[in-house]
Structures
1.
Amino acid sequence: MTFGMQVGPDTFVTLAYTLYDEDGAVVDRTDDEQPLSYLHGYGQLVPGLERGIEGMTKGDLRSVVVPAADGYGEYDPEAVFEIERSDFPHPGEIAVGDEFVAESDDGQGISLTVLEVHEDSCVVDTNHPLAGEVLRFDVTVLEVRAATDSEIQRAEEALAPPRSARPRRKQPCTARRPRGTSTSVSASATSERACSTKRMSKNT
């Protein structure tokens, strides 16, 4: 009997998935027409999902339960903080629930959700929306192949910290509204808990 290549280090994987929160509600989904492709072993998925699909082959289906610690982290109260309203684009138009992406000086993106709007400031939350939740992924592997040398090189470069990396807590950053694309299974930079924004721009 011939077995296909298994999901493992240095494999390029294409999959479809449905993501459920801990209440069983669907929060994200891909399919055969718009699948997710990634390079296994380079932190491109949340850790619990990446470990959970190791060993799968093309055509396999699996349900993977991911605890918060292996998903988007536990909810961190310190990730909720206040930013001057004047730092936002169009400060007179900010509303509770608005989402922005702050860009630090090294290009890292930090998602901000507005929780409160005051006269001179806004309270924002930089926790991932799924932080603290136990998640379930129903996964179908569509393709597995060996990664090319160039794909591996790009993944290694993406993992390497920038040479000018410094502690980024309360670093200056720019911010913009997200384009609305889904990144639910992507690994999230949850260590960047705060950002003192001095310049912000908004996507229209």
Note: The chain is about 10% helix and 30% strand.
2.
Amino acid sequence: MRAPVILASLAATLIVTLPSRELMVLQTAGRASAVESRVPVAGASLYARTIGNGQPILVLHGGPDFDSAYFRPDLDRLADAYRLIYYDQRARGKSAEHVRGEDVTLASDIDDLDKVRQHFGLESATLLGHSWGAVLAMEYALRNPTRVSRLILMNPATASAADLAVFRKVYVDKLGDAAMSQQRQIVAGRAYQEGDPDAVAARYRIHFRPAFAHAEDFERLMKTMKAAFVAQGKDGIVKARVAEDRLMHDTWEVPGYDLLPKLETLRVPTLGIAADHDFFPIETAAHIAQAIPGATLVTLQDCGHFSYMECPGDVHKVFDDFFSRR
């Protein structure tokens, strides 16, 4: 089977055919080892991990209560051509020590991102934001356009209250009444409220089920996330959840939240990546791409919310095409 990739700009649509996902899984032999480090920021120290050579890419994880662990090992496939710079955002993952979730704000996350950019000697950076990380990338770029050389918004979360409302309806429809009821019961339970890793993993098993095209990739992600929740422990999970609440307060919970008109001022080369099996409607990414002058939108077929995992070869080719442009 051959998997088509649809490239759409504001003016045109181009359909390209690539080899199947099975044949495009990249070989990892001979790749450079990862290097772990700490990045000092105001009142905290952030965990960072770099791997690969070539064009540096600053990777922003989603959640926003997750950390960068869910990208690995799949996104590391890009390290054969790019230098990937991962970091755990403040109060999440390995950046949770000696900080409070209550102290996290959108402003602190933006400032931390700028400190990470400076720490790695990047005058301007390519930002790769996945899911919620795409929202952080856009918020940063709007405030610091000269410090961003390229934007890659992979399976982006919504940039406006209107698109958020659409997503919530689509999400409920895809999940179904029974699964929604089960998820609500878990979230309301004491174990989940206290950050029990098993309860949290059970909730996300329901949450992400409609976000995948392939059951085997869904199971791999669940295994990776379960390990991350166990590593965080109850206190770390609750702290990350508090940080998430603070970030929601600063973005999606703001009445009339809407980045789309502001994005029209950006003059940064931008690649949007959507997927036909994502639980975010394709229109979410399309509205962002339409707002940013000259942005390109790529819609991957037979692929879900974690496109770097389900369609690694297609994603690599899309990156290569994007970086080949001047």
Note: The chain has one domain: 3-324.
3.
Amino acid sequence: MTAPARVYVVVMARLPLVDSSDDNADPLAREVLTGVSAARGRSVDPNVYRAIANHPRALQAMVKFGTVVYFQNSMTPAQRELAYLTASVTNECHY
């Protein structure tokens, strides 16, 4: 006899996503998001940054930290990619 399949329900908190082109958004949030887009060479901000932009100073600190961790280190781009992929597989991240 096999065990019944497990059903998982994921409930996530929803935060409003800040849009860098929204004139009503916090000026610091808009500035940081615009900088992230420029650095990535894309006009679309990643949702994780847009969610954290609800607290602009936290976003600013995260971007500074991420810049050091991801770009200002001794790893080659290939080594960084291998680390990202290894972490994704280890944590069963499918995206």
Note: The chain has one domain: 1-95.
